[in-house]
Amino acid sequence: MALEIGVLIGFLVIFLAVLLGPFKIHVIEENLEVFLFVCGALAMTLSGFVEVPGAETGWSLEIIKEAVTAPLHVGEIFGIPIGIFQIVLVVGLVIYKWHTPIHKAIRKLADVLSPKIMAFLLIVILGLFSSVVSAIIAAIILVEVVNAMPIPRKSKIDLTIIACFSIGFGAALTPLGEPLSTIAVSKLSGAPYHAGFDFLIKMLGIYIVPGILAYGILGMFFLGKGNPNDHGMEAADYNETIKDVVIRAVKVYLFIAALVLLGEGFKPIIFEYFTQIPSTILYWINMVSAVLDNATLAAAEIGPVLSEFQIKSVLMGLLISGGMLIPGNIPNIISASKLGITSKEWARLGLPLGLVSMAIYFIILFVLKI
Fold first, then answer.
1. Residues 130, 332: Cα–Cα separation, whole Å
2. Which SS3 state, helix, strand or coil, does residue 81 take?
3. Cα–Cα distances in Å, from 278 out to 201, 249, 282, 283, 286?
4. Phi and psi at residue 75, in whole multiples of 5°?
């Protein structure tokens, strides 16, 4: 398969629009979910002009069904489908109903613990347990605690971004945490790896657990100078309506559907180029997961023919870069929607933190070969 220059230019324009549009054009930032959905639809249409051996491209009933159902079904409880949309909506309504005692309890805890100790515990605990309770639940808990903490808005944003890096890391340790880990285990379930529930813990735990602790310490540093008596340090009052809760759930639904379309639409690029790139370079190129669905990238790049080292480098690159920008992973999307964090506000810390993390793990994996 060789992509025509016109098709390549089309994909490049869409990618640059997704990457830069929210930073440059205010109306895009204000309607980010709709914009990403339109870009995903355009990418899907463009992919229909490309034939990929062994893979379906362009629009199909299967892709439409996946985009419609992906936000509605990430698993089942007692045979009942559970999805991101339902969780965000139901938990939002629960918090709306009982926000007073919930926020009161959080504020009492904030009175007992200093902001930096609370930040450390929040980042580390949610990071370590996101692989069990799922990244979705961890993100919802995060935003409610952060929203009730007596710290300025900038500190809330910094804490949220660092915690989302931690949650994205931790969620990869088991197939329960996030789609990327589910896909990775599924793709490696046969010979020679015979991946099971604890496969990723054994492979990535040595990198991820210290990383979560490091993010916890970093969170303490960012909040270390906070003083609860300073102006602007008061906890935010809950002022949402039922309409706000429903609209946020709908926005999250549209966001996830858009990421499905973007991931499927860019498959020709992924299959044509990414799968042929050496691990050292692919590690850095996988930073595109900051704006594209990392689960789709994992599905294309991970396979039983890869060595254990190649699998490590692919997954670590995807996991780290997923925290850089809002579309990078589900916790980012939920947190930014709830707290009203803009793309510029996220990138201010997310990009440098992601790049530094990428550099550190590059040294660990490729230089020190640990």
1. 14
2. strand
3. 25, 40, 6, 9, 12
4. 170, -175
Tokens representing residue 124 in the block: 């580390």
Q: What is the pLDDT of residues 93-125, one digit of tens each?
A: 988 888 888 888 888 887 788 888 999 999 999
Phi, psi of 66 (to 5 degrees): -65, -45
User: For the chain, which residues make up each domain, given as ranges?
Assistant: 5-367
pLDDT tens readout for residues 123-134: 999 999 998 888
Residue at 370: amino acid letter: I
**H or E, element range at 209:** helix 199-223
24 band by pLDDT with thresholds 50, 70 and 90? confident
Cβ contact 331:138 at 8 Å: yes
Three-state SS for 30?
Answer: helix
Tokens 């529930």 — which residue? Answer: 197
Residue (of 61, 32, 69, 25) closest to 44 by Cα position:
61
In DSSP terms, 76 is beta-bridged to 81
Yes or no: say if 39 and 17 are a contact pair by the CB < 8 Å rule: yes
Cα–Cα separations (whole angstroms), residue 355 to 67, 148, 325, 347: 31, 30, 12, 11
